[in-house]
Amino acid sequence: MNDLAHRQTIADLLYRSARRTPAKTAIVCGDVRWTYAEFDRICDRVAAGLGELGIDKGHRVAVLARNSHGFAALRFALARLGAVLVPINFMLKAEEAAYILRHAGARLLATDSGLAELARAAAAMDTAVRDFVWLPSEEPGAPAPGMTSFDALAASSAPSPEVELAGSDLAQIVYTSGTESLPKGAMLTHEAVIWQYVSCVVDASISGDDLTLHALPLYHCAQLDVFLGPSIYVGASNVITAKPTPDNLLPLIERHRIGSFFAPPTVWISLLRSPLFDTTDLSSLRKGYYGASIMPVEVLRELAARLPDVRLWNLYGQTEIAPLATMLGPDDQLRKPGSCGRAVLNVETRVVDDRMQDVAPGEVGEIVHRSPHLMLGYFHDDERTRDAFEGGWFHSGDLGTIDDEGYIAVVDRKKDMIKTGGENVASREVEEAVYRLPQVSEVAVVGVPHPLWVEAVVAVVVAKSGHALTEKDVLAHCATHLAGFKAPKRVVLVESLPKNPSGKLLKRQLRETLSGLFAAD
Question: Is the pLDDT score of 252 beyond 80?
Fold first, then answer.
């Protein structure tokens, strides 16, 4: 009984917000608008309906769907059952999604009309999935045939589930994006996620007064657990959309008077480049957040000039830490450009060498963490779990530096460091140099096999619309600003860079595509 009296789980957070502010708007998505009291009741009914389908505590339930009010409700309904959420990247191929379904042992798969065909194809590939739930989309649509509809679950007359649940129970298995290798399933408990919510509320200034736009995919832990979850925790109002495009986002900000918005640098750049930007009323926007990669310094300056009333936060972390680890606040954006800041409230972070000794200021080492945010380990992967926690710290795989004030700068992923002619080149440094060219919209720098240098530095560049740019222009610019061994050997001009839906550049895909670039040399 004492355990129940002390309980703190994801399920409890919505209960409490609904009792504090029952009439306040909780969720807006398309034409749907729920108060906190309505959201709370719907989640109870959906949990009861899922129970009637045989879902119980510990069962894994996968979601392959775009953002919607249904996705948000399912997240809290599963928490109330003690079931384990397994969100899946909807950009994956059927075989890739099937790998996650098999690996997680998912019993039920929730999807939407636009992804129902992909969901069925993936589930048919020797998985344990036997039931499907159809989630409504932002735009009205008919349920996919043969699937239990969200509305049917929400109309359940079964009693609300009473589950013995503790903060130490597993809440979700979130699979890494797979930009470097096969996805790994990070096991996160209720208490790990909630400790992370506390860090978000304190260090990212998430407030019950916020009206937040959630546009990046909810399958990704950044949007789900740095923004939606903490916003529900403090009783903020939330607008959900599935289309993170300028033509959709800018009108939504104006229409709803959005005050808080998160996106990776690639999306912020797309907003700045949109012809709608200067004709849209963005005066309500006060809090801007970015992550997934460092914001180019030139873009930071442009944001400061064109959105002078917006305070910016850079949030850095990864799936395994639920995902927030460090934060660079508004006052440091231009004082510490390129930095991801210092550890947030409930995280301890160091930069260490191969002997786990702290590196000197300015030296490159691996970023490691200790935190109650951290995962239990990788699902069904004891070996990689042991490697990740070697020495009693979680090894991020990111290389970084730390300055004399304790501010960290991510230099590269360990596997993204380019080794050319015996020298190490940080792709981030080269990218920052290329971004100084005013014609450049986006750039990604990778190492490509080379017969002489082993790896050669290659810059893949997207030019700003209406601006002329040549390989010769970029090479000449880099020769002026970078040491010879750091300067790109080649520049490839493209229309767009490959990214996953969370905005992370898929450098592995670029390396594969360009692997034969120097074959004739």
Answer: yes
